[in-house]
Amino acid sequence: MTVSDDKFTRQTLQRVTPLTTNLFTLRTTRDPGFRFRAG
Q1: Could you tell me the CA-to-CA distances from 33 to 1, 3, 25, 29 in Å, in that order?
Q2: pLDDT tens digits along 1-39
Q3: Are 27 and 12 in contact (CB under 8 A)?
Q4: Residues 29-38 as b or e (16 or more Cβ within 10 Å = b)
Q5: pTM
């Protein structure tokens, strides 16, 4: 299966915050057109 590049956007990892030795949070950039929809 071949996946074309137009299905993905390049984002930048801005911050990694460790919460515990096994959990962490990430902050990344996001394209302004990319929005989550509830449902």
Answers
A1: 27, 21, 23, 12
A2: 455 556 777 889 999 999 999 999 999 998 887 777 887
A3: no
A4: eeeeeeeeee
A5: 0.53
